[in-house]
Amino acid sequence: DTAVSQTPKYLVTQMGNDKSIKCEQNLGHDTMYWYKQDSKKFLKIMFSYNNKELIINETVPNRFSPKSPDKAHLNLHINSLELGDSAVYFCASSEGRGPNSYEQYFGPGTRLTVT
Amino acid sequence: AQSVTQLDSQVPVFEEAPVELRCNYSSSVSVYLFWYVQYPNQGLQLLLKYLSGSTLVKGINGFEAEFNKSQTSFHLRKPSVHISDTAEYFCAVSTSGTYKYIFGTGTRLKVLA
């Protein structure tokens, strides 16, 4: 009964490859997010979707493209992977409205290593 | 724009001692404040949040934090820590209508036996 799940947990790939990370939440939330945590543990938001609509799009290379097929899923596709993309990527979700809308629930993370 | 500063990158403390993890924020509008904990190789778990009302907020695992608007701070405290509290702690700020978190750089709490 995992609330926010991500697959895969670990991803090791070579420079230049294209890869995807999947996220699913079973909380009935309207809003989902992608964060990147670098090697120094710094967390930065990348994207956010509300009911399949992109609402936050931070300064992220065009090689990163989020896709939300429905409000329970938010996937992250990365083209032409670079060494600097190595990080832990976290998915999160929130209600999207009401007093609890600011409380975000995080997935376990996907550790991406680009060699 | 908002920003969050966690001045202490690491805080070592002996078991059963009290601890305070500092968080200061900068914002020109009203903020919502959060503390999250990240155990090794895991995701983030919400410890507590301040949205409005009482400035003293109690969270899970015996943690509490106090919102101080004049000092723009939201320090996290626990009167007696356990070995199991060893983790990375993140302070985050959000503002009305944005739904976006700005995180601090984290404080690694290391509880020593």
Features:
heterodimer; A: 115 residues; mainly beta; 4-stranded antiparallel beta sheet; 55% strand; globular; B: 113 residues; 6-stranded mixed beta sheet; 53% strand
Element-level helix/strand string of chain A: EEEEEEEEEEE
Q: How much helicity do the residues of chain A have? A: under 10%
Beta-strand content of chain B: over 45%
As residue ranges, the low-confidence spans of chain A are none
> Which chain pair shows the most residues in contact?
A-B, 26 and 21 residues
Give the helix level of chain B as a range of percent.
Answer: under 10%
Separate helix tally of chain B? 0
What class, by secondary structure content of chain A?
Answer: mainly beta
How many beta-strand segments of chain A?
11
Biggest sheet statistics of chain B: 6 strands, mixed
- Total beta-strand segments of chain B: 12
Q: Determine Rg of chain A (CA atoms, Å).
A: 13 Å
- Straight-line distance between termini of chain B: 41 Å
- Report Rg of chain B: 13 Å
Overview of the molecule:
Chain A is mainly β and 115 residues long. Chain A is built from no helices and eleven strands. Chain A starts with a strand and ends with a strand. Helices cover 0% and strands 55% of the residues of chain A. In chain A, strands 2, 4, 5, 6, 9, 10 and 11 form a seven-stranded mixed sheet that branches. By secondary structure, chain B is mainly β. Chain B has no helices and twelve strands. Chain B starts with a strand and ends with a strand. Classes of the chains: A mainly beta (115), B mainly beta (113). Chains A and B meet through strand 5, strand 9 and strand 10 of A and strand 5, strand 6 and strand 10 of B.
